[in-house]
Amino acid sequence: MKQQTSATTETNIKGRNIIDFTGKTIHVGIDVHEKDFQVAKVLGDICLGNHRMAANGQGLIDHLRTHYPGAGFKCVYESCAWGFTLQRQLQQAGIDCIVVHAADVSSSDKEKKRKTDNVDALKLARNHAAHQLPAFMCPTKKFKSNETLFVSAKN
Predict the structure, then answer these.
(1) pLDDT in tens, 40-96
(2) 39, 46, 77, 97: which has the fewest Cβ within 10 Å?
(3) Degrees (nearest 5) of the Cα angle 110, 113, 119?
(4) Looking at the domain 2-129, which fold is it?
């Protein structure tokens, strides 16, 4: 897969043609941390970009819609200590988002040896584009600390 970043930078340069992504599906891999996100965007065999941004769900939504007008998005991130807030924000905005268990994301030996946030985000985006990631059901309701949460695959 080729690393290409010019497509995203050209969309914001004044005087240049804006690329129309209407009808295209961009797969977005997000490496989530408390203070920032590493976001990789893949379209077909091309990596459109891989950048770090502040951990802000609305900021991510605005970024995707501004830089890739008309595109549909399929986002993925690994379950983490920061919960399902990002998944809910993306779903509310009409952006498909799944959460996967970290153990379900396959890694090559090379990826394991040079493990970085860039590599992790791109790996998530590529695996999601190849339909290789099983999602799990995210809770839709906030629970009090003394309540027990039971999630059924039938619901």
Answers:
(1) 999 988 999 999 999 999 999 999 999 999 999 999 998 887 788 899 999 999 999
(2) 46
(3) 70
(4) Nucleotidyltransferase; domain 5 (3.30.420)
Its pTM stands at: 0.77
Q: Is residue 82 within 8 Å of residue 32, measured between CB atoms?
A: yes
Calculated CA dihedral for residues 32, 35, 38, 39, nearest 10 degrees? 80
Among 74, 106, 101, smallest CA distance to 90 is for 74
Q: How far is CA 30 from CA 26, 99, 101, 110, in A?
A: 13, 10, 13, 20
Q: Are 14 and 6 in contact (CB under 8 A)?
A: no
**Contact (Cβ atoms closer than 8 angstroms) between residue 116 and residue 33:** no
> Does the CA dihedral 68-74-77-79 come out positive or negative?
positive
- Candidates 94, 124, 110; CA nearest to 32 is 124
**How big, in percent rounded to 5, are the helix, strand and coil portions of the chain?**
30, 25, 45
